From TrEMBL:
Pfam families: DCX (PF03607), PLAT (PF01477). It comes from the Eukaryota. This is Oxygen-regulated protein 1 isoform X17. Residues 36-118, 154-233 form the Doublecortin domain. Residues 810-831 have a biased composition (Basic and acidic residues). It comes from Equus przewalskii (Przewalski's horse). The gene is RP1. Residues 264-380, 392-509, 851-999, 1019-1135, 1147-1267 form the PLAT domain. Residues 1-24, 801-836 are annotated as: Disordered. SMART domains: DCX, LH2. InterPro entries: Doublecortin_dom (IPR003533), Doublecortin_dom_sf (IPR036572), IL1/FGF (IPR008996), Inner_ear_hair_cell_LOXHD (IPR052970), PLAT/LH2_dom (IPR001024), PLAT/LH2_dom_sf (IPR036392).
Length: 1283
């Protein structure tokens, strides 16, 4: 079959370029005038190809005239109201401001969004686009007989709006189609009336030159009035001049020469049913299909009144080319007019040359509101009363892609091609789902046609109308019920003028076999997923493998065995990538360095790193899960059963086996990391120029985010491309206009099932960053539908640095940081200047005394000639960098020398830390800083100092610093505060470099003796505290430790606060404490003060090692220490296990607290208790959660609490108290009963009180010591005691 118009799309292509193709001719101007050739582009739209305008005094007399002209060319909601320079910095207000050859931006408001002009200039003009779209007809690798797409019509019938009798035929030449506006001006001359709008004959607006060129051959010209329906017949006005005046002979639109080789006259009789409203006002067309070819659409009309009315027969004579033996017809209408619905009864055709007659019973509606909604139907020719081909209802499954904003609201059309013709262009509008073409949705349509035989291609596209008209088409599956075959047409591309190649119609070819097609699609998806996930397997990354079937992590034990039931915090579940070549890796145990995961003879085990069996091939699935296959023996996989044990596919049913793993990368959200928050395999969250956020951004630099770690599990995200713009949730909006305040703080929720994260607002708990179907970000409630899932990709790993200043900043980060500090501090180059002018000195000496500070720096055994800089931090601000320099810089910081400096510190509030460092520029940059003493000359006293924070940033080891101690002396007194450090800064902990350390006052650390020599002091112990790797496992509270020995208890030793670098998730913090003369250790107690923004803490393990004897105790905790976990106790006790004796048991003590019945006996204060027995005490514990009452300590009420402690032996007394906080804080306590079950028998002890704990009652005490009632029996009735 040859090419026919029946298969082409009459579509509207909404393009912004308006066809501004400059003419290649040069005008000969007799009287030269000042002319400027200028390009205008649309604000924020690089897809708009621009408008070329010649500006001279004759074309535009005023600037407003230019604005009005551009409003018709540049598609803006309110027209062009502002013209500015390309970067939007300067507005143009007069014609004289425009420069010849330059480019400008058009907008409808003062706000202008920049445009990539290079990209906009590369946009094709509509004329070229139309040629590109029709090129398939000439270069398609299909049989020559296959129908193709229609060429752009070269002649156009133009009707006057509302008056079909007034029409003109216009020849489309390059001269009249240089631009859409030029064509409208041409039509104004031809129609002799103003033409400002064009419509298709069915009333759809034609918004651009491209849509007009690709139209069906007719348009309706209008002024500013709306479209007026009418009988706009087009065929009789496209007849060639040599065939005049044939009333019932109609030729198809387009080129008639192909029809004139051997013309055949046909007589067509069409009977409209006599049903109510069976007639139509629409335009009817017919297409004849023969063995040689098909005709074009032939529009049927007459000159003797209305046609196709109820119960009437209409007869036409038509002329077509030689199509061969007729085998089917297609009849349809344009759905235009006031009453377009039509019910056809029958059709008869006579071949006037061969005298053959064909009868086709129809009896069908062609109406949008009747039957299946089709306005086009096919019927086969009958042979001896039977159709020669069956009528088939094809089932069409259209899959819209998973990308954000993939759906469309435009009208979608499709044509199916087979060896026996095509279906013609059919609109897919009646899906079995409520809404069609939504993201990730597969819509099913029914398409009725005469059987096409074997299918080989489809043409599918949309008309580009409506907001969000772009469409990402995944694939189309056509099911043929006659042959029971399926044909898959794979696309996986955008049909969008702003994406991909800009096309909104695609020609897709069927795969030979559906199984092969599915495999090809799967392989394509695997490659796309691998491209998105391959960064995880870079050499040096530390990974975890989560198995969704077992709910556990893969772990490699020291004995070489492997299972998949590990917890997230399991130290044996971490693997380092030590080899990577394409997708072949070696995964070495992070804990057991000599073992790696291996597949040997189908068995999974730990083997020596580097062997052939340890090389595993990573195969990614479309669901973002990875398979681990032996590189040595392809086909052998790492497989586990549902118990987490090693298995193979033959060992159990396939449903009970799993070989898919979700892969996690450790350390993604360290401070100053640069990450990508992917929303799909090829999209990412990014900030738009207007500050809004969208999930449809490209995975490029504009979508990069810099991580600012606030505390464990809480981060801020700053745009790398747009410095100082942070992701935030505020006032019901989610955007990128945050400034770094609490609105920008997000809690990171990790999703084990797919390795994604969700971002929960810290300020608005329960609200997450989510995406709408069009990809726009908005606050949403957490759901599992994927709208809150982001897949992080690390572009640059950060370092553990909670203060937000990277220890090794990149150049880009330095620029960002510099822009933030520019208004707060002078440039660092100025601060580090080696000399201070005399003027600066004089100013410094005349400052107010309360702003003057004296700094004494004591250098140790190694001096430095580098430039030293100081920062001072207060709770209201920061001062720095301050250059510590003098005129004779070579005499500063010499060994064992104390240097004094006068500095100015203003308006920073209470000082809580300092930072000192140098730039490493001298030949001898190493510096042993022995002491820093800071004194306030005249100021209100800071009170008793409690702690200091030291910080040292170093880009290489030559800048590391060993701090022995910090001594702070107050001016005019002999008091001195000592803070012992005795370590190098920065220091390494659990593979992470820390630049900051918090030091507590020496006297707060029990028996802590300063280090005198390199060896350990007597009684020195090393304490290693390991925080778990659960989400938000770290704490911001201050952690204390108590160690109990046979001789005495150490008392609470403050280890430090999590506000800074201590006790972070998945970290080990090391401390040195002195336990001299404590005796044999039998238990420890560790806990925190429950302060800070996130005090919850998951403690994994504590290790105590005697530095002198190397005696080691490993105490496993694996528990939350938090008020909202495990009964609300913020303290944990563990017995010490020794080889020569059994450890003491951990006992659950049940505490019954009886509040008296006196008026006002209840309290709202926090109540604390300390149980004291023959084996020590429980420590002060808060009675937080009552087991039997929601409201505690009410008048006449009994509250039951439970605390766990290492066995205290026989209880002797309790200390009970409250903190006096809250209204009505006084409390009348009647008694306390403590019950416990131990191996040597049950214990039940009564502690009577019957007194007030009230500042204004009794003796005014809020703490009482209660002794055990000796006469109380374990079998006694506690109820009677308290009555």
């Amino acid at each position: 079959m040859s090419e026919t118009p029946s298969t082409s799309f009459s579509m509207i292509y909404p393009t912004s370029s308006e066809g501004q193709l400059p003419s290649s001719r040069h005008l000969s101007v007799t009287h030269p005038v000042v002319a400027k050739r200028i390009s205008f582009y649309k604000s924020g739209d690089s897809q708009f190809g621009g408008v070329r305008v010649v500006v001279n005094p004759r074309s535009f007399k005023t600037f407003d005239a230019l604005l009005d002209n551009l409003s018709r060319k540049v598609p803006l909601p309110f027209g062009v109201r502002n013209i500015s320079t390309p970067r939007g910095r300067h507005s143009i207000t007069s014609l004289e401001d425009l420069e010849d050859g330059e480019s400008y931006l058009c907008s409808h408001g003062r706000k202008v969004q920049p445009v990539d002009l290079d990209k906009a200039r590369r946009r094709r003009r509509p004329w070229h686009s139309s040629l590109a779209i029709t090129a398939h007809a000439h270069h398609s690798p299909v049989p020559a007989a296959a129908p193709g797409m229609l060429r752009a019509p070269r002649r156009l019938v133009v009707f006057r709006n509302g008056d079909p009798k007034t029409r003109r035929v216009v020849v489309l030449t390059k001269r009249v189609t240089q631009s859409f506006e030029a064509f409208l001006r041409h039509l104004t001359e031809v129609m002799q009336r103003p033409v400002t709008r064009l419509y298709a004959t069915d009333g759809r607006k034609v918004p651009s030159l491209q849509a007009m060129i690709l139209s069906s051959g007719a348009v309706v010209a209008a002024g500013r009035e709306p479209f007026k329906p009418g009988n706009y017949d087009i065929q009789k006005y496209l007849l060639p001049a040599r065939l005049p005046g044939i009333s019932h002979r109609v030729h198809p639109k387009g080129n008639a020469r192909s029809e004139s080789r051997k013309s055949v006259n046909w007589k067509v009789s069409i009977i409209t049913s006599d049903l109510p409203n069976a007639g139509t006002s629409s335009q009817i067309y017919i297409i004849l299909y023969g063995q040689h070819r098909s005709s074009a659409p032939i529009y049927l009309y007459g000159t003797d009144g209305a046609r196709f009315q109820d119960g009437c027969e209409d007869i036409f004579t038509i002329t077509v080319g030689d199509i061969g033996t007729l085998f089917k017809i297609r009849i349809g209408h344009t759905n235009s007019g006031l009453s377009p619905s039509w019910h056809c009864k029958e059709i008869q055709l006579w071949n006037m040359n061969s005298r053959k007659q064909f009868y086709i019973p129809v009896q069908r509606w062609l109406a949008r509101d009747q039957e299946d909604g089709e306005i086009c139907r096919e019927f086969p020719v009958l042979n001896k009363g039977q159709p020669i081909f069956p009528v088939t209802i094809y089932e069409v499954h259209v899959a819209t892609g998973e990308l954000w904003n993939a759906g469309t609201v435009a009208n979608v059309y499709m044509s199916i091609y087979g060896e026996k013709g095509d279906t013609g262009s059919r609109q897919l509008f009646r899906s079995k789902t409520s809404f069609s073409f939504l993201r990730g949705q597969t819509d099913t349509f029914s398409l009725e046609a005469v059987h096409l035989g074997d299918l080989y291609k489809i043409v599918i596209g949309h008309d580009g109308l409506g907001p969000g008209n772009g469409w990402f088409l995944e694939d189309v599956v056509v099911k043929d019920p006659t042959t029971n075959r399926e044909y898959t047409f794979f696309c996986h591309r955008w049909l969008d003028q702003g994406e991909d190649d800009g096309k909104i119609v695609r020609e897709l070819y069927a795969r030979d076999y559906n199984i092969i097609s599915a495999r090809q699609k799967l392989e394509f998806n695997r490659k796309e997923t691998w491209a998105a996930e391959s960064w995880k397997f870079m050499k040096g990354n530390t990974l975890q493998f989560y198995n969704r079937l077992t709910g556990g992590f893969v772990r490699l034990h020291p004995n070489g065995t492997v299972d998949a039931v590990g917890k997230k915090t399991d130290k044996y579940g971490l693997f380092d990538v030590i080899f990577n070549k394409e997708n072949i890796c070696i995964f070495q145990s992070h804990k057991i360095r000599h073992l790696s995961l291996a597949l040997d003879n189908g068995s999974v085990a730990g083997m020596a790193s580097g062997g052939a069996s340890t090389k595993l091939r990573v195969l990614y699935q479309p669901n973002r899960c990875a398979l681990l296959e032996s590189a040595l023996v392809p086909g052998h996989m790492v497989i586990f059963d549902h118990h987490g044990k090693i298995a193979d596919e033959s060992s159990a049913g396939y449903a009970n086996l799993s070989k898919e793993f979700v892969v996690f990368v450790k350390g993604m959200f360290l401070n100053s990391a640069v990450i990508l928050l992917a929303t799909s395999l090829c999209q990412a969250l990014c900030i738009q120029p207007d500050g809004s956020c969208t999930g449809v951004g490209n995975q490029s630099e504009k979508s990069y985010w810099k991580v600012h770690k606030i505390s464990s599990g809480i981060c801020m995200f700053e745009s790398v491309k747009n410095a100082q713009m942070y992701l935030r949730i505020k006032d019901g909006q989610c955007d990128g206009t945050g400034t770094g305040d609490i609105d920008c703080h997000f809690k990171i929720k990790k999703n084990l099932e797919n390795a994604s994260i969700s971002l929960e607002s810290v300020k608005n708990p329960g609200l997450f960053v989510g995406l709408q179907s069009d990809g726009q970000a908005k606050p949403v409630i957490y759901t599992k539908n994927g709208s809150v899932f982001f897949y992080p990709q690390v572009i640059k790993f950060g370092r553990e640095d909670p203060t937000g200043i990277s220890a090794t900043p990149s150049k880009e980060e330095e620029k960002i940081r510099g822009s933030k500090k520019r208004q707060e501090t002078p440039p660092e180059s100025e601060a580090r200047g080696p000399l201070l002018s005399s003027t600066a000195k004089e100013i410094s000496e005349t400052l107010l005394s309360e702003d003057e500070w004296k700094v004494l720096v004591l250098t140790g055994n190694t001096g430095t000639q580098a430039n030293v800089t100081l920062w001072v931090y207060g709770d209201e601000g920061v001062t720095g960098p301050i250059s510590l320099s003098k005129d004779s810089s070579e005499q500063l910081f010499l060994p064992r020398q104390e240097d004094e400096f006068q500095i100015e510190i203003r308006n920073i509030g209470i000082i809580y830390k300092i930072r000192i460092g140098h730039d490493g520029t001298s030949e001898q940059p190493e510096w042993n800083l022995q002491r820093i003493d800071t004194f306030q000359v005249e100021a209100v006293s800071l009170g008793k100092l409690q702690k200091v924070l030291l910080r040292c940033e170093a880009s290489d080891k030559s800048q590391y610093w060993y701090c022995e101690k910090v001594v702070v002396r107050e001016s005019g007194t002999t008091s001195e505060s000592t803070f012992t450090c005795e370590r190098w800064l920065p220091f390494m902990s659990q593979g992470i470099i820390h630049s900051e350390i918090e030091l507590f006052l020496q006297e707060m650390q029990i028996n802590h003796q300063p280090k005198i020599q390199e060896g350990a002091n007597e009684g020195d112990w090393k304490v290693t505290v390991i925080t778990g790797d659960l989400e938000d496992a770290g704490t911001t509270a201050t952690v204390s430790l108590s160690v109990y020995g046979e001789t005495r208890c150490s008392g609470p030793i403050i280890l430090g606060s999590g506000k800074h670098q201590l006790f972070n998730s998945n970290s080990a913090d090391i401390f040195k404490i002195n336990l001299k003369d404590i005796g044999e250790i039998y238990k420890i107690r560790i806990g925190h003060d429950n302060r800070g923004k996130d005090p919850r803490w998951y403690l994994e393990e504590i290790r105590l090692e005697n530095i002198d004897t190397r005696e080691l105790f490993c105490l496993t905790v694996d528990s939350w220490i938090a008020e909202n976990e495990n009964g609300g106790d913020t303290w944990k006790e563990m017995p010490v296990v020794r080889t020569n004796k059994a450890p003491l048991p951990v006992v659950a003590y049940e505490i019954y607290v009886y509040t008296g019945r006196k008026p006002g006996a209840e309290t709202e204060s926090n109540v604390f208790i300390n149980l004291i027995g023959t084996r020590g005490d429980s420590g002060n514990r808060r009675l937080h959660q009552s087991k039997n009452n929601k409201v505690k300590f009410q008048r006449g009420q009994v509250d039951i609490f439970s605390i766990e402690a290492v066995s205290l032996g026989k209880l002797k007394k309790v200390l009970i108290s409250h903190n006096g906080i809250g209204p009505g804080n006084g409390w009348f306590l009647e008694s306390i009963v403590v019950k416990s079950e131990e191996e040597d028998g049950n214990q039940e002890v009564l502690f009577p009180c019957n007194r007030w704990l009230d500042e204004y009652q009794d003796d005014g005490k809020t703490e009482r010591e209660l002794l055990a009632e000796r006469s109380f029996s374990a079998a006694g009735d506690t109820g009677s005691v308290a009555s």
